[in-house]
Amino acid sequence: MNKVELDPDSSPAAAFGAFLRTSREARGWTQDEVAEATGYSATHISAVETGRRPPTTRLALRLDLTFGTDGVFKRRAGDVKYSALLEGFPEYVTHERRAVELRLFVLGIVPGLLQTKEYAAAIAAGAVRRGSITPEQADERVKVLASRQAQLRREPSPLVHVVMDESCIRRPVGGPSVMAAQLDHLMDFAELPNTVLQVAPYAIGEDRSFDLPVNVLTLPSRALMSYAESAQQGHLERDSEAVLPVLTSYYQLQALALSQAESVALIRQLRKELP
Description:
The protein has 275 residues and is α/β, with parallel strands linked by helices. It folds into two domains: 12-81, Orthogonal Bundle (434 Repressor (Amino-terminal Domain)); 89-272, Endonuclease, Chain A, CATH 3.30.870. The chain contains twelve helices and six strands. The protein has helices at 12-26, 31-38, 42-49, 57-67, 72-81, 89-96, 117-129, 135-151, 167-170, 176-190, 240-256, 260-272; strands at residues 101-106, 159-165, 195-200, 214-218, 224-229, 234-237. Strands 3-2-1-4-5-6 form a six-stranded mixed sheet, sandwiched between helices. Helix 1 (12-26) runs antiparallel to helix 5, helix 2 (31-38) crosses helix 3 and helix 4 runs antiparallel to helix 5 (72-81). The longest helix has 17 residues, at 135-151. It is elongated. The model has no long low-confidence stretch (mean pLDDT 90).
């Protein structure tokens, strides 16, 4: 069996999973033995260890009893519960790291994978000022984003298709200098050999396929997976058949969007208006 490598810094769920695995292996226990002791299945324990399933308070309490850790697992589970990451997102990130193709649609702000550090920090700082997240959660968001961006530089690199609503490049974020650097970064991104960048103009109107951000992944097995989120909840769809209509809508959106050359020209025009 191939052992899944863990990156504890990628998310609170991954950090919990890494701690569970380290604690288990230090005692020489198998996942089956932990599962039997806690009353869960070995499949469930495996999913928690790899960050694909967040730990519940009930599981954490049983782990503390099993390992004799006096509330350590419960406190770490609390870190996951009150994380700034939406439901389903930590598991999505684990699959994003393996995907051979990524298709992203966003509106309102530049997609995270394409954000500069300063742009990402400005978005997180705005959420802190509104009281939506804590400063610690803001730091977590930026840290997770940096980890995700680093994975795009792996070899072989995944193909990345991005369609941004026109609002993403027109909405000022972080002041003129931050926005200027962000637009420069988008133009650099479009020049990469493994990327396609398109802008969905306002003129599309009601024909725009999506009203919420949507990510579609193609995995090495060619299986499909999608992730969509609202302000309060994320949903990860693992059934390829269920993802196919989403993929069709994405293709329709790409057909209506500006070409990459037209998109870059629009971004360059907006960039000239900034210092």
